[in-house]
Design a protein that fits this description.
Layout (H helix, E strand, L loop, with lengths): L2 E7 L3 H14 L5 E8 L5 H8 L4 E5 L5 H11 L4 E5 L3 E3 L3 H11 L3 E9 L16 H8 L2 H4 L20 E2 L7 E5 H7 L11 H11 L3 E12 L10 H18 L2 H55 L10 H20 L9 H21 L8 H27 L11 E5 L2 H13 L5 E6 L17 H7 L4 E5 L5 H11 L4 E5 L5 E4 L8 E4 L9 H18 L3 H7 L3 H13 L2 E4 L15 E4 L12 H14 L2 H13 L1
Parallel strand pairs: 1-2, 1-4, 2-3, 6-9, 10-11, 10-12, 12-13, 16-17
Antiparallel strand pairs: 4-8, 5-9, 6-8, 7-9, 13-14, 14-15
Helix pairs in contact: 1-2, 5-10, 7-8, 9-10, 10-11, 10-13, 11-12, 12-13, 18-19
Length: 647
């Protein structure tokens, strides 16, 4: 056996399907075996592999033991002269494996090989080659010196920025998403260290391969697409903690004495520094828009107050100072609160939700206004004028932000995408059908013939003329049919046309369209899949607000619980659990299987509780839970809670 390819999968079924399709094409003519180790995925990955790739040897774990341990499971059972560790969110060229085998065969000193990595826009990923994380290298990386001086041998040894990305060279560290390893090097250096759950295991293995007397090579003669680069994870505190803890494990393992202590101290400091920066950035991203809205609305209300006092009341001192510290903050709280509840801050440029939320807030404010003491009811006209100003001001802020980001004022309008499909007419018809089914309506310019087909009566142009057509029609999205286009042709087009275009690929016989518009974002996916309401950020927020409101509404009933209810302790315990966020008032039926549904806190009640005289089967319970997740809204919860409390 020449080559053993090992892919560890965790809940990325559609990307795995595309990766396996490209692997199947790349192993033609090679004595190879393909292993998939599934770490307890709940997205039907296992069944997809069994049905579509019966030649793949499958290991199904009942838990998630981590990346290193899962790879080792397959390595121990594999028999290839070479072992390739490959991520599931990758796409390899048709000749990737043959080129790697030829290089390794002609370089017996090579222990491991890494190739050129590009993201979903065709841009080179610097993690294709890296240096060992010494204290100085880590310092430059942590404090951004490597980014400031990307080609410096002194400051950017982390990404070896001084090496030519198009020339084969020795490298200290190879990326774990594609590590082509000689079996004898693994035998001498040892398998992946299972102390690393995620991140760091590639650095550790690369280091041990060199320590065992071999060399690691960066080999740019072939390239792969890696949809989820390292930068996609940096927005989370979990990434910061896990990555730097992995570096600490590496340091304590391979460094000794004072150097190790200094390095660990630096890494621990980096954890706090990066965590603080991440928290600050995430907080700023969340708060800047409502903060600007608040300041603008407040300033406008002050101007309106002065105008109305002079124009209508003819008295500059008519309004008391109470309006500045009580009335205006209350107005703003209600307006922006209802806009938030309505999803006005979920999608920054969704004007419809924003205006609807502000309008509802004005209605709420009008109702609240009537209950306020006369001293806190300055003027109904001020409320109405303030509502108009709130709408104008918040739309204005978003218009400016939209112009800064996109250089246009098409606020609230989806950008019309000029789309080209590259592939056969049969596959292009299948693609347009998929787009219709998932609700995507781009402006389809036409279909470009795959290489070898030139019938102008059916196609817009030949494959060789694609660059000209892209420029003439200002195309901003390309969809490649992988059944008709080789992976290396797709990657060559992406590299040549550049990142201004959004690229997507349709795997053969797949119901998914996969791509990525930025290396800083996870891969995008158009797929015919169930859309669960309960999984939407706005709906989850509404559910939590509903839980809290029910908790507050039940407070007046507390004396009844304590005096007359035989289940008083259960009621109090449930109330406390819901209020603290440990439970929700309405959740899934606990008797059902919910592993494939969006996660949800344990419910005090469930849809099954209303079926008191029925004995449902397991299939019926699963269906109830499915419908609850798919069609959830606040009224469903309110109805069920009302039935349970009233009954």
């Amino acid at each position: 056996m020449r080559l053993s390819i090992i892919i560890v999968n965790y809940n990325v079924r559609h990307f795995l399907e595309q990766a396996l399709g490209s692997v199947r094409r790349a192993v033609r003519g090679i004595d190879a075996e393909v292993w998939v180790v599934d770490n307890n995925s709940v997205d039907d990955s296992v069944r997809m592999v069994e049905e579509k790739f019966p030649e793949v040897r499958l290991i199904v774990n009942r838990d998630n033991p981590g990346f290193a341990k899962a790879n080792n499971q397959a390595i121990r059972q594999s028999t290839g002269e070479y072992v390739l560790l490959l991520n599931p969110d990758t796409l390899v060229e048709e000749d990737t494996f043959s080129k790697c085998l030829a290089f390794m065969d002609s370089h017996p000193e090579a222990g491991a090989l890494g190739c050129k990595l590009i993201d979903g826009t065709g841009k080179f990923l610097p993690e294709s080659k890296r240096g060992f994380p010494s204290p100085w290298v880590a310092f430059c990386k942590t404090f951004g010196l490597s980014a400031i001086f990307p080609r410096s041998k002194t400051f950017n040894r982390y990404y070896l920025g001084y090496l030519d990305v198009d020339k084969t060279s020795e490298a200290d560290v190879l990326a774990g998403c594609f590590m082509f390893i000689r079996r004898s090097a693994l035998d001498r250096a040892g398998l992946l260290d299972e102390a690393f759950f995620m991140y760091g295991e590639d650095i550790d293995l690369s280091y041990r391969i060199i320590q065992a007397g071999f060399k690691n090579y960066y080999f740019p003669e072939t390239k792969i697409i890696h949809y989820k680069g390292e930068s996609t994870k940096k927005g989370s505190l979990n990434y910061v903690r896990t990555f730097y803890q992995a570096m600490i494990i590496f340091t304590r393992k391979h460094f000794t004495g004072r150097q190790a202590g200094l390095f660990v101290f630096m890494l621990q400091g980096a954890i706090w520094l990066r965590a603080g920066m991440t928290l600050a950035k995430n907080f700023w991203d969340r708060i800047w828009l409502p903060a600007v809205d608040t300041m603008l609305i407040y300033a406008g209300l002050v101007v309106l107050k002065n105008f109305w006092a002079n124009y209508y009341y003819k008295d500059p001192e008519w309004f008391k100072t109470d309006v500045l510290w009580f009335s205006f903050p209350l107005y703003i709280l209600i307006w922006l609160g209802t806009a938030w509840l309505n999803g006005g801050y979920d999608q920054r440029y969704d004007i419809r939700r924003l205006v609807r939320g502000l309008a509802f807030g004005t209605v709420v404010l009008a109702a609240v206004y009537g209950f306020l003491d006369l001293d806190y009811r300055p003027s109904r006209a001020l409320v109405l004028m303030g509502a108009v100003w709130a709408v104008l001001a918040t739309i204005g802020v978003r218009a400016v932000a939209h112009f800064v980001e996109f250089k246009n004022f098409r606020l609230g309008l989806d950008k019309i995408r000029n789309l080209l499909i590259v592939g056969s007419m049969k596959e292009s018809e299948r693609v347009t059908g998929l787009l219709r089914q998932v609700g995507i309506s781009p402006n389809l310019i036409g279909v470009i013939a795959p290489p070898g087909e030139t019938d102008g009566r059916e196609y817009l142009c030949a494959f060789s003329q694609m660059d000209e057509v892209v420029r003439i029609y200002r195309v901003n999205e390309l969809i490649f049919c992988s059944k008709d286009i080789r992976s290396q042709d797709i990657m060559a087009c992406m590299t040549r046309l550049g990142p201004a275009i959004s690229y997507k690929i349709v795997p053969e016989e797949s119901m998914s369209i996969i791509g990525s518009s930025s290396k800083d974002e996870p891969g995008e996916l158009y797929t015919i899949a169930i859309r669960y309401n309960i999984a939407q950020a706005g709906q989850r927020r509404n559910k939590r607000v509903f839980d809290l409101l029910i908790c507050l509404a039940l407070i007046p009933a507390a004396p009844f619980w304590l005096l007359f209810s035989s289940h008083r302790m259960q009621w109090i315990g449930n109330w406390r659990a819901v209020f603290s966020g440990k439970k929700t008032w309405v959740g899934y039926a606990p008797q059902g299987n919910t592993t494939s549904l969006p996660s949800l806190k344990t419910g005090v009640f469930s849809p099954l509780d209303t079926l008191r005289d029925i004995h449902p089967t397991t299939q019926m319970i699963d269906r109830l839970n499915f419908l609850f997740a798919k069609d959830w809204n606040v009224w469903r919860d309110l109805t069920l809670v009302g039935q349970m409390l009233g009954g």
